[in-house]
């Protein structure tokens, strides 16, 4: 899988290749589903684990904000795959928080991480996952170097912009029918720039009731 992503120019950096080799996607995909094929997989509760090329693209975009000792927030952490990757990249001196509003997914993501090479980071406390509405971010971790949002918002929630550190970066899919993966950079003077990276298709960033209404 990592070789394929490298050949297609999606993985460019050694750090991203290494972390995606180290965190086995097979531990995060429900049993019976092909873990290493480049497509999203249903994980229940109207949610999916993103395709490997999306995980790789987000890791590439956030690489400079995931250096050892930095802090990262994974909003809509789902299976916990990217949360685990972030934790491995920032290491034991860093801090990573996952926020997910489906309690069952939080429980299974914690179990997935326990089986992965990020297990010790979870045990020692540099990685934690919480049940909460991610649209409010996680103020206790703020300000964060990196924020990743794994579900598409109608617009960028202000609390997430506020919780970004100067020099920090957020990657967030935005849109309803047509979605763009937006890269939000907070400069050292506090000003914010936003650019579109690629067109994407994510599940909505919404309330728990709306997400589960037909489930
Ligand atoms: N990066 C995750 C993506 C999971 S899909 C992975 O690859 O496993 C998006 C996730 O966002 C779902 O698990 C969904 O339950 C969650 N989500 C949607 N709206 C949310 C909200 N308001 N607060 C927290 N989590 C949310």
Automatic annotation (TrEMBL):
Keywords: Methyltransferase, S-adenosyl-L-methionine, Transferase
Catalytic activity: [protein]-L-isoaspartate + S-adenosyl-L-methionine = [protein]-L-isoaspartate alpha-methyl ester + S-adenosyl-L-homocysteine
GO cellular component, one term: cytoplasm
Family matches, as Gene3D superfamilies: Vaccinia Virus protein VP39
The protein's Enzyme Commission number: 2.1.1.77
GO MF annotation terms: protein-L-isoaspartate (D-aspartate) O-methyltransferase activity
One GO-annotated biological process of the protein: protein repair
Superkingdom of this protein's organism: Eukaryota
Transferase among keywords: yes
Family assignment from sequence similarity: Belongs to the methyltransferase superfamily. L-isoaspartyl/D-aspartyl protein methyltransferase family.
Identification of the protein by name: protein-L-isoaspartate(D-aspartate) O-methyltransferase
Species this chain originates from: Elaeis guineensis var. tenera
């Amino acid at each position: 899988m990592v070789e394929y992503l490298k050949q297609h120019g999606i993985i460019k950096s050694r750090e991203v290749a290494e972390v995606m080799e180290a965190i086995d996607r097979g531990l995060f995909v429900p049993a019976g589903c092909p873990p290493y094929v480049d497509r999203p997989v249903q994980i229940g509760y109207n949610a999916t684990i993103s395709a490997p090329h999306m995980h790789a693209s987000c890791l590439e975009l956030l690489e400079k904000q995931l250096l050892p000792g930095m802090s990262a927030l994974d909003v809509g952490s789902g299976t916990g795959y990217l949360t685990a990757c972030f934790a491995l990249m920032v290491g034991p001196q860093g801090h990573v928080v996952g926020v997910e509003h489906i309690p069952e997914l939080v429980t299974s993501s914690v179990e997935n991480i326990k089986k992965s090479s990020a297990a010790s980071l979870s045990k020692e406390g540099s990685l934690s996952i919480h049940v909460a509405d991610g649209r409010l971010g996680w103020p206790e971790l703020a300000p964060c170097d990196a924020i990743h949002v794994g579900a598409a918002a109608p617009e960028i929630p202000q609390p997430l912009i506020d919780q970004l550190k100067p020099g920090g970066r957020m990657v967030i899919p935005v849109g309803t029918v047509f979605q763009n993966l937006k890269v939000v950079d907070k400069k050292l003077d506090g000003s914010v720039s936003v650019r579109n990276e690629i067109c994407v298709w994510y599940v909505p960033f919404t309330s728990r009731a709306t997400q589960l209404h037909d489930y």
